[in-house]
Design the sequence.
């Protein structure tokens, strides 16, 4: 085989051990497939047609005769009394039409997701589903503010180099072999998950580090893929998401789900409540993922267990040494984060919300002269914030119309399922729908907005505790690692070209099924001990 001059030049110019080569902006942008391009063309047409059909043509029987005695939402009851039966039915029809059209636009990516959210928000206003005050106020949702403040704090970690220092130090200290390197990333991800409530931020911090390690062990992507590269990228994708599942503050979707459940039961879901239930589950899934990757899906050959680039780990040591001695700003960052974690983990004692705690931390970090970062150094993805605002506004629309509960009641009435349905049937169905919906939806926030209200509606219909059904459903939010469009970290890591869609699907789907089984087992055991599922999943109570 003869190398062309351009190939030689490219090979010489590219240093696989240079971390700057793996910055997000330098990763190649994946071109859309023919099917994806077709979806972007047909998406707007389908959305418009669906809106017209559900708003003006199709008259769904269950929306034509709404029984106010079965409404769960207080906002919906007030709206029914204020508007009257006919106007309330029209509001529900408009809500359903906007919801279906938005889902189509979100799933086909026909237009940017944030633009779909803006259309959704103004659509709910123009159709009279929500008032302007209600719709626009969602930009000020507590979870929105927590996300913004968390990005301020994450930027502090990046700007001072604390996150990079910790990750490099841990790898150099404990990553003495191929196996221990993978175990090190489990610890690194769990630690970062406790502090950073943005999975994309964690992916951006860790990607250059594990890509250099992949290059050291001979994985260069494309025709130079190997099991080490497949394993280290896909395991980190799993760790980034599942690490977030162990903490209430692990992602905005967790906090949103907790807020929806808290609103339904009239009390808060605390950081300690979530951690007590999910930390054992989190570590279980992480360890199972590690074992399956190393032993079954991507076993390392003897050659792949040995560094392929001489002095490769020395380059990581050089990167670490470039950071110099830990400075005052880094110490201040560490102190702020430890205090924040301390307040988050003791919220049951003092009652201060995670958002308020993050607010104080961000204010200290931004304080002129005494702070750590300036506003210009803060990286906040406002397009994601606008997308989230649309999802929260959708939730307000659901509350104003009670569409989830109305639909749930109609669904079970149609199937002829009575109120004596065993708890375990509902538990299996709701948790299964939540976890496997990740294969279709591309937003955890959207899934939380859709399926948590449904779980609450099912619990209310059948007379079960809201906690017993809605909280286990919420625990399945973070399983978004199977396909590239399932989450931002999945899309980002797919661009590394270290693995194929088949690699991702067979590994991720297996973990997804196992996680669902673990959730079911926990419902009968650990969740039962904690009082989440009364008297067990498979028993009557």
Sequence:
């Amino acid at each position: 085989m003869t190398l062309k001059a351009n190939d030689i030049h490219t090979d010489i110019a590219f240093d696989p051990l240079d971390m700057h080569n793996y910055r997000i902006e330098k990763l190649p942008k994946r071109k859309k497939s023919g099917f994806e391009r077709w979806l972007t063309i047909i998406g707007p047409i389908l959305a418009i047609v669906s809106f017209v059909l559900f708003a003006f043509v199709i008259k769904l029987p269950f929306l034509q005769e709404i029984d106010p005695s079965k409404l769960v939402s207080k906002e919906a009851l007030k709206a029914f009394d204020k508007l009257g039966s006919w106007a309330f039915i029209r509001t529900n029809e408009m809500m359903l039409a906007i919801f279906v059209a938005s889902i189509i636009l979100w799933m086909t990516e026909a237009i940017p997701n944030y633009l779909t959210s803006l259309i959704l928000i103004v659509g709910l206003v123009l159709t009279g589903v929500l008032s302007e005050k209600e719709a626009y106020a969602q930009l000020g949702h507590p979870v929105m503010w927590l996300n913004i403040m968390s990005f301020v704090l994450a930027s502090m970690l990046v700007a001072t180099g604390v996150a990079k220092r910790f990750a490099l130090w841990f790898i150099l200290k404990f990553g003495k072999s191929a196996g221990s390197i993978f175990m090190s990333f489990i610890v690194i991800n769990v630690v970062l998950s406790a502090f950073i409530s943005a999975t994309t931020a964690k992916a951006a911090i860790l990607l250059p580090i594990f890509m250099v390690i992949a290059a050291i062990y001979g994985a260069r992507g494309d025709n130079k893929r190997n099991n080490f590269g497949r394993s280290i990228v896909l395991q980190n994708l799993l760790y980034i998401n599942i690490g977030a599942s162990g903490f209430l503050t692990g992602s905005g979707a967790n906090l949103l789900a907790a807020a929806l459940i808290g609103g339904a039961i009239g009390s808060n879901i605390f950081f300690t409540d979530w951690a007590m239930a999910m930390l054992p589950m989190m570590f279980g899934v992480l360890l199972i993922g590690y074992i399956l990757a190393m032993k079954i899906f991507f076993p390392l050959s003897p050659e792949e267990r040995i560094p392929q680039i001489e002095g490769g780990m020395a380059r990581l040591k050089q990167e670490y040494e470039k950071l110099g001695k830990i400075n005052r700003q880094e110490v201040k960052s560490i102190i702020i984060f430890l205090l924040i974690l301390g307040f988050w983990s003791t919220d049951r004692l003092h009652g201060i919300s995670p958002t308020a705690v993050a607010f104080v931390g961000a204010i200290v970090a931004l304080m002129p002269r005494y702070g750590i970062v300036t506003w210009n150094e803060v990286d906040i993805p406002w397009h994601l914030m606008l997308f989230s605002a649309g999802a929260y506004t959708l939730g307000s629309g659901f509350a104003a119309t009670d569409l989830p509960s109305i639909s749930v009641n109609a669904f079970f009435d149609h199937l002829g399922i009575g109120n004596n349905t065993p708890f375990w049937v509902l538990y299996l169905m709701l948790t299964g729908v939540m976890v496997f919906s990740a294969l279709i939806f591309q937003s955890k926030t959207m899934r939380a907005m859709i399926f948590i209200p449904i779980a609450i509606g099912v619990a209310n219909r059948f007379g079960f505790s809201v906690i017993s059904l809605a909280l286990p459903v919420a625990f399945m939010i973070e399983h978004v690692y199977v396909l590239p469009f399932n989450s931002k970290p999945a899309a980002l890591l797919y661009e590394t070209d270290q693995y194929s869609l088949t690699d991702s699907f067979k590994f991720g789907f297996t973990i997804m099924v196992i996680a669902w089984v673990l959730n079911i087992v926990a419902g009968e055991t650990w969740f039962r001990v904690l009082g989440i599922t009364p008297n067990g999943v498979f028993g009557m109570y």
